[in-house]
Predict the structure.
Amino acid sequence: MTLKPWKDYLGPTLFCDRDDARVKECSCGISRHCRTEQEKAQAVFSFVRDEIAYRFDYPWRRASETLLRRSGNCFNKANLQIALLRALGVEAGYAVCLITKEVFRPILPPEIFEMVSDPTIHVYCAVNISGRWTSCDATIDQRLFDAVYSSREHWRHDRWDATTDLRLDPVFVVEEQGVYANIDLCLGSPVKFWTDELLAKANGYLDFLTQPSGKGTR
């Protein structure tokens, strides 16, 4: 896919509010000891992956909202990661793909899992360092990985070195759809089935799974 001009991958959008005061303050704090773009990208990745808990949510959260809530789904976490990177002057975009819904089987109640489209959309961050686009999927936090995914095949929780792609195992990927500078139309679209009640139920299930007593029950 032909990428848009570099400036599009640095600018704000409606949902990627990189100029929000909280986003700018957070980005500066995260990167205060960083000297290079690579170090900045690594610091932002680590923060978003493990300090922003994975939770089911609506996709239309602004990056500043996700930062304030300290939780979000793949859309929310990728959007925040991109906003933090752009606030630091590092080019970042939305990598979009279709994945098998089996990814969600371990973390959703069966009745909600059945509602998920197959395949379903997954969004993660890609960053341009030294002219090379690299995937850095920060979706699954350490706590959720340890509780649910660590014992399953095709899952890893590696440290990202900012030079190699880190993303879902290909076994789960149906189709890669490219890297985009702006996916506001997607983020702002009506959700297919999520309601406040279903989100509360799904996140209650996640809370149960990530408690010591819940680990390994599914």
